[in-house]
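Q: For a teaching handout, I want to show students what a protein-ligand complex looks like in token form. Below are the inputs, and the small molecule is 2-acetamido-2-deoxy-beta-D-glucopyranose. Please produce the holo structure.
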Amino acid sequence: MADGGMIGVYPQVFVVDTQAPCGPLPVPVYPRRGGWRHRLLFALVGLALLGVLIEACCIYNLHRGHGETSLAEKIISNEIAEIKPERKPAVLLKGSQPPETKDNVLLWTQEGDGFRHQMDYKDGLLTVRKEGYYFLYSKVAISDIHCILVKHTIMRISERYGDGKTPMELMQSVRYHCPKPLKGDRQDKQETQDVTSSYLGGAFHLFTNDSVFVKLEGGQIRTGQKENFFGAFLL
Ligand SMILES: *[C@@H]1O[C@H](CO)[C@@H](O)[C@H](O)[C@H]1NC(C)=O
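A: Here is the structure, written as tokens, with 2-acetamido-2-deoxy-beta-D-glucopyranose included.
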């Protein structure tokens, strides 16, 4: 600010953002002589010009700023698009409690940490919406007090093969399991039943509308969501 004695001689000083990409603002030159009306007039005209220039500068910056923002937004959204690719079909189903079967076909639930994305599930059958190579996996825990032959299979029904209704085996695990006799005084107790597990996992080319399911023959499936599961994901 000009000091008191100089008011009217020099225009008041305005602080302009030096970061703004404007050229130096022309400072109007005022005649030292002449009536105070002239000086006032010049001062007012100067201020008006200064105002117009500042406004022009601000508008320019505003527009430039908007351009940069939208560019930045574009870059960010592109990055997000790269980081978050389109989610592929993926499923994890858990064994229902108590375990349920229908004609040896295991039935599943989506409870707990189970999930289902872009695949259909109904009555034990997981159906593919999008053709591709899928990794299929299933684990079951079996317990019995007798020696048992357990057959754990992942089956497929495809319109592309045979009559389109007959299930085909994709993966199979067969094992003969005998509970180990317990030693000593525990031998006569019911706890002689013990547990065995079967895991299947592999990749297959599946077509749209193909269904896959898990079949278990022989042995009793053991209760437990963590112990029994079935899932698939597109590779
Ligand atoms: C899948 O099944 C649906 C319903 O049955 C049918 O409309 C569709 O055409 C089938 N898609 C293919 C590729 O077979």
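A: Two things your students might notice: Residues 32-85 form one domain. Residues 186 and 192 are 8 Å apart (CA to CA).
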